[in-house]
Amino acid sequence: xxxxxxxxxxxxxxxxxxxxxxxxxxxxxxxxxxxxxxxxxxxxxxxxxxxxxxxxxxxxxxxxxxxxxxxxxxxxxxxxxxxxxxxxxxxxxxxxxxxxxxxxxxxxxxxxxxxxxxxxxxxxxxxxxxxxxxxxxxxxxxxxxxxxxxxxxxxxxxxxxxxxxxxxxxxxxxxxxxxxxxxxxxxxxxxxxxxxxxxxxxxxxxxxxxxxxxxxxxxxxxxxxxxxxxxxxxxxxxxxxxxxxxxxxxxxxxxxxxxxxxxxxxxxxxxxxxxxxxxxxxxxxxxxxxxxxxxxxxxxxxxxxxxxxxxxxxxxxxxxxxxxxxxxxxxxxxxxxxxxxxxxx
Length: 345
Known about the structure:
By secondary structure, the protein is mainly alpha-helical. Helix content is 72%, strand content 2%.
């Protein structure tokens, strides 16, 4: 006998809202084809001129290093330095180093690859994802800092990366029971996406990897992920037509600074790269205002909806929860705001 599960009220409401949005977006594209096309073109330009060239080689090389076990060697080399702060296995130190050095979305990609190769546990991956998937320093130095004309760029970088670094140290206490510390023989056994205690645990590492096959697998994986990332940037830049409609039709193209900021904040929360360009135009006359310093950096700390969806695409087969990732990003954004306010005071 076939039985059907009755959908709950929350699921029904969510589906109704999703369908309503899809229909409204379809109508908006028809009514405003030029604005939609410009948004897609802006996303395509940013993807192919900034994200793809800067991210794709790192994805291929990092995947190759993980599959050939070179990441383990690099993590061991980092033990005398990074191990002073994070007393963690070599694979996890490698993730922290590469995640901070290469920037988003490399942290999530490395964690996904390590979980796929069973070189870290799911709890270890959850811990690393909480603070290792941030906007990269090259993006900050090459795009954000010149765009907003920040002075003392080194102070901006220190503040941007001190927050996730210190956050990782603070939450390590809660994840320590689930982490295979180097000085201990923590015992684990993997069962699907769960981590259970058993007799002994060592990362699953092949003895003699085939380098050509490893390169082919890394290349295929990077192509799939970079295609999804580029597609997200294009789509979410096209969604920036909504803030434009709010500004031009609901507020009748008001010249109010607060309304322009509201629209540009929505744009940045949708897709951080395209939104920052709009935000810079609104903040330019307000160089003496604290918003000129606080707002872009705070938005960068969170990352925006596009970054969240991209992260979800990367971790969707790992068992890691995107809601947990969002929670950690929100906490770090709040900490960042508090530090900025204290610095001002």
